[in-house]
Amino acid sequence: MKVMVTGHGGFASGMAAASRMIVGDQELIDWLPFEEGINLSDYQAQIAASIEAHGAQGLLILTDFKGGTPFNVSMLLSQEHPQVAVLAGTNLAMILEAIDQAPTASSVTDLADHIVAIGRKGLLRGILQSRD
């Protein structure tokens, strides 16, 4: 199973750098930035090519946020591919877990559900307590 991370500006490249710092280079993950000035048709073609190449065995697409171009394009292009799942709101914990779990996941749906749970667990509101 493959994983693709995409998002606006430096989102994908920043997440790539952070994940490489923690777990090194990973062959099962692709990083696709949606940079300012990129030709939308070229961007769509890159996502479509990844879906065609990896969709049959499973492809999890992680995007920065719901409603943005990376999410919308990924959702549109994945509609006819049941082994492709698209998630929005990606954080580093989700990416690291996807890297760890994708090789042994039983299905892209199970992997996506697991990754969503990890993303939720990774959210925390820190409160500084007074030391009175």
Can you characterise this structure?
This protein is of the alpha/beta class and 132 residues long. It contains five helices and four strands, in the order βαβαβαβαα. The chain has helices at 11-23, 40-54, 69-78, 92-101, 108-121; strands spanning 2-8, 29-34, 59-63, 84-87. The chain has a four-stranded parallel β-sheet with strand order 2-1-3-4, sandwiched between helices. α3 (69-78) links the parallel β3 and β4 (84-87). α2 (40-54) crosses α3 (69-78) and α4 (92-101) runs antiparallel to α5. The model has no long low-confidence stretch (mean pLDDT 95).
Summary of the model, kept short:
The chain has 132 residues and is α/β, with parallel strands linked by helices.
Q: What characterizes the major β-sheet?
A: 4 strands, parallel
Beta-strand proportion: 15-25%
What's the overall geometry?
A: globular
> What is the mean pLDDT?
95
Strand/helix succession = EHEHEHEHH
Secondary structure: helix percent: 40-55%
- Structural class per helix/strand content? alpha/beta
Strand arrangement within the widest β-sheet reads 2-1-3-4
Number of strands: 4
Low-confidence stretches: none
Radius of gyration: 15 Å
Count of helix runs: 5
Spatial separation of the terminal alpha carbons: 52 Å
